[in-house]
Amino acid sequence: MRSFVPAVLIVFSSAPAVLRADVTIRYKSEIVSPIAQIPGKTTSSVIYMKGNKGVTVSDGQTMIADFARQQVTILDTARKKFATIPASEYGAKMSAQMTSLMPQQSQPMVAEMLKSMKTTCDTKQAGLSETIQGVQAEAREIDCDMSISMPDSVKSAAMPPMGMKFVMRIWTASPAERMRVPGLWQLSSFELWQKYFINPAGSLGAMMPEGMKPMLEAMQKDQSATLRMTMEATMQMPIPGMAADGKGTPLIKMNMEIVGLSTELLDDSLFAVPADFSAEPFETVMSGITGDAIQSVKAETAKAEAAMPKAVIPENVKAFVPSLTPVSQSRPAAPLDANGKKVQGMVELLVTVGPKGKVEQAEALSGPEALRKVAVDAVTHWTYRPVIRDGAPVTAYTDAIVNFTDYSKGVPAGGSPPPPDIMAAAERIRQLKLALPRTPEQEFADLEQAAGGDKTTRYDHLGDLAVKAVELGHDDKAKAYADELLASAQQDAGGWNYGNAILKGHMVLGLLALHSGDVATARKELIESGKTTGSPTLNSFGPNMTLAAELLKKGDRDAVLDYFEMCRKFWKMGGNQLDSWSQTVRNGGVPDFGANLVY
To answer: Is 578:564 a contact under the CB 8 Å cutoff?
Structure first.
């Protein structure tokens, strides 16, 4: 890779004057998700090039690339801040930054599924040519098949892997066209420089499991003067009949295409940092940019939800609590089809739970017609712990799934709800959540009620109860739940929830110590939480850093640095992130822990 540096720089510096003309290249991107019924979203990006510098502007981020110095400068125009780093560090730093944005809370099976991911790709010339913006382009096609196995903890037998298929076409200018058309030569050289030094695909690959790397490598191969890129992704879900036609369920479609190519003169100021911008660490600048992007998405989502129709709620229904766990339930036998075989599939239902915990009504939202009545009849005999509001039991909605699938013989074809039915059910649940919102105190009350069941159910809820209690300022309850959680964990050594319990229990006790001004005890509890053995969730997304952040505010940097080192034992994916956080702490700062501050 290092040997490529002189070649790139020589080519840039020795090119004929006509090839060194100032260049402006504009792209338009469109993304649509058919299964999510999302209307197409269009964004734009632009590349400016002049001499030995290039500028890219996209997604609210401006980056200046200095090819000669092998540096990149990121500009946060909203806050007038910038950061300059060696291009060779860009991939790792972006990986660490993006990893910090991942939600910490995740089902353990997600991590197991990611570890099982395997991808194979086939690359070939598509045999297609087209004129794009006056440039003759040829297409390269990449077909990738991905398989993800369901974890042993959730599959009842040899459930087939879940499959995903990605079909990508990348249109590039031929070598002759790159030399003929002013601007394309520079674009080709810029792409090669990015590939070898900035390595944006590498930063993405560092976050992804090993199973994604073949696809990323195939996309990066032979990258030169890209004029268009399309991608279609489909999913073969492990649900009977979901993709019986072999085509799969459409997930997402994306198209990026060059829409403008100009060699008009560009002002030198476009490639310089404005005088009124201040230098900041890379992480600080990127946190501001990504934070703005997240808030923009949230605002757009809230606006879209506000415009959507609201559910009509019966007067007697006072709450909606997702996924309540029944106190008693029975799995009904699947009916037989005309050939004497059991009908396979899943049925999603909306359940009305009365004040005494009895099911008053059940409505099938999706699922094979042959199974709906059987599922409804079965659920009407289930019982729940009552939902409490203002100290009294009320009538409430919840959702439930009855699974009639026998995975012992694989996944049979036919009988499952098509994507429109699934999305209609999801929309119905979304409307109910909006019409019957829960306050944080109500969520806590619902969690306490759910934890009142058997010993196993209670243990599974104790961690969330402890952190929710300390978040709401219920210190007495938080301590009681944390103590109970740690005591219960000693009976679960080796269990999937053991590592979570150790970390959450000691974290909560540490936060409570800080509430009373006892920094020494808080420091001790932080170290105790770092002794966790990890878990599928912790190993993938890392630990909660709330206690560490609070101790840093008290100036206790040594304990936090020790804690980071302990986290390396289980959070191997987070090595780059821990390196970045550690450097920030050594420099006297407090890292932006992002999603790792979410309980």
So the answer is: yes
Quick one: residue 118, left, alpha or beta (phi over 0 = left, psi -120 to 50 = alpha)? beta
Domains 311-437 and 439-599 share a fold: no
Which residues does residue 574 pair with via DSSP β-bridges, in sequence order? none
H or E element, residue 116? helix 108-116
Per DSSP, the residues of 67-99 read: TTTTEEEEEETTTTEEEEEEHHHHHHHHHHHHH
Contacts of 555 (CB under 8 A, 6+ apart): none
If pLDDT is split at 50, 70 and 90, which confidence band does 248 have? low
Q: State in words which class domain 439-599 has.
A: mainly alpha
Cα 363 to the center of its chain, rounded Å: 32
Q: C-alpha angle 443/449/451, rounded to 5°?
A: 105
Helix (H/G/I), strand (E/B), else coil: 351: strand
pLDDT at 238 over 70: no
| Alpha carbons 225 and 531: distance in angstroms, whole number | 51
Report the C-alpha gap between 359 and 362 in whole angstroms: 7
Secondary structure of residue 544 in the 3-state scheme: coil
Distance of alpha carbon 283 from alpha carbon 470, whole angstroms: 29
Instruction: Name the residue ranges covered by the structural domains of the chain.
Output: 4-304, 311-437, 439-599
3-state secondary structure of 362: strand
Secondary structure of the chain: what % helix, strand, coil (to 5)? 40, 25, 30
Tokens for 402, please give them. Answer: 């009855």
CB distance 256 to 29 below 8 Å:
yes
Q: How far apart are CA 288 and CA 597, in angstroms?
A: 16
Q: What is the CA radius of gyration of the chain?
A: 28
How far is the C-alpha of 467 from the C-alpha of 486, rounded, in Å?
Answer: 13
3-state secondary structure string across 191-208: HHHHHHHHCHHHHHHHHC
Q: Which CATH class is domain 311-437?
A: alpha beta
Report the helix count and the strand count for the chain, using DSSP H and E.
19, 17
List of residues 6+ apart from 115 with CB closer than 8 A = 209
Lowest mean pLDDT among 79-88, 225-234, 300-309, 357-366: 300-309
- Of the pLDDT bands very low, low, confident and very high (cuts 50, 70, 90), residue 575 is confident
Terminal Cα distance for the chain, rounded: 42
Query: What would the two tokens of residue 464 be?
Result: 């969330």
Q: Is 393 helix (H, G, I), strand (E, B) or coil?
A: strand
Cα 373 vs. chain centroid, distance in angstroms? Answer: 36
Indicate whether 106 pLDDT > 50: no
Q: pLDDT tens-digit profile of 318-374?
A: 999 998 989 888 888 888 888 888 888 889 999 999 999 999 999 999 888 899 999
**Strand, helix or coil at 442?**
helix
Confidence (pTM): 0.60
- Whole-number average pLDDT of the chain: 82
Tell me the per-residue pLDDT of 141-166, one tens digit each, with 9 for 90 and over.
999 888 877 555 444 333 455 678 88
For residues 274 and 49, give the distance between their C-alpha atoms in angstroms, rounded to a whole number: 18
The sign one gets for the Cα dihedral 286, 292, 293, 298 is positive
Tell the CATH topology of 4-304. Answer: outer membrane lipoprotein receptor (LolB), chain A (2.50.20)
Q: In 3D, which of 33, 41, 36 has the Cα closest to residue 59?
A: 41
For residue 327, give the 3-state DSSP assignment: coil
Q: Rounded mean pLDDT of 495-512?
A: 94
Given the DSSP bridges, would you call strands 118-132 and 81-86 parallel, antiparallel or unpaired? unpaired
